[in-house]
Amino acid sequence: MRILVIHPRMSVFGGGERVAVHSIITALKARHEVLLTGEVFDVPAFEDFFACQGLFKRVQMLTYPSFRPIADRAVLYQRLLYHQWHIREVLPRARDFDLILSTQDVAYLPSATVPIIQYCYFPEYFVHLESRPSSLLWKAYYLPAMLFYRNRIRDIDCLLSTSDFTQGFVRDKWGRESTTLYPPCPIDLYKNTDSQREDLVITVGRVVPEKRMNLFLDLAQRLPKVKFAIIGSVAPDRESYFRRLQEVAPMNVSFLMSPLRKMRNVLAKAKIYVHCARNEHFGISIVEAMAAGCVPVVHDSGGPREIVTDEVGYRWKLLDEAAEMISELIADDGLWRKMSTAAVSRAESFGPETFESALADVIRRYETLLHDEV
Predict the structure, then answer these.
(1) From the first residue on, what is the mean pLDDT of each consecutive set of 10 residues in the chain (374 residues)?
(2) What is the DSSP string of 240-254?
(3) For the whole model, what pTM was predicted?
(4) Domains of the chain and CATH, by start
């Protein structure tokens, strides 16, 4: 089959891009022809970051210029219109294709007559609305987007969700059933981290308000004898927020602004991983930390509830609970070792092989249907 992968923003270098990589790998392994459409991106840097050297030499690239907003307002609508326009423009270059595999936002999908497989994340408008649930102004602003997303969803044949939590969102908000397929996590990068552990607590993620890193700083304030570290990245439009965090951070907190895969030595020294985000749709960084032997202490909501069982870590609703959990793990080395071993074992369930095998089964069903039609 000729499979068109739609992923407009490959330059993000996040979990969604890892899904795109392993989706492409899955299709190529089955000897399908793969086409990729999206913005231009730095292919050598991308292949270095995701350790997939030479991948895009085997893919037909259908790229277009990167999005640049023409104004500071209504950026969501500018982006949606921009990508819709350019994807429709490049489709004639793709000629005949048999299947669309969309690994980014639902709203980027063009109208098509071939089957569509969509990997579902929380849409941008929903994340924003969740942070301002009582704002009628924002609800009015996002209403056209909500209607557009709902219309796009109707055209999709197969929906795959990042977690059972996301599956519930798809059902409640869009009235569609979906199948949970946990994203591929690069657990092999973090194996064999047998260095000496320190009383170090880490968190990982983009420095944005929805990650609630201010709560991580509050935890550090309550536990001044324990070292804390934030590993992450800062987008240019979030520099002021980052500086505010630095200004209020207690002395036992360090900031390490670098991709996690380049900070594996820090993971190897840490004992505990804390995740403060509420209603995270999955949490790849949690699995990565577990693979490195860190015991997870996560907010009791969203996808992390499915990752962190009672045997491998703790879930909290109140910050006082989180502080007590961290203190207990620091004080009881036997307990930490037991849960650390269980966390490493649990992380194995989320490796790339599991994702690729399940996605290959889905693609195979459509290949069978296509052959039956012929």
Answers:
(1) 94 87 97 96 90 94 92 85 91 84 90 90 60 68 82 90 92 90 91 81 88 94 95 81 93 84 82 94 92 96 95 96 97 96 95 95 90 65
(2) HHHHHHHHH--TTEE
(3) 0.87
(4) 2-184+352-373 (3.40.50.2000), 187-350 (3.40.50.2000)
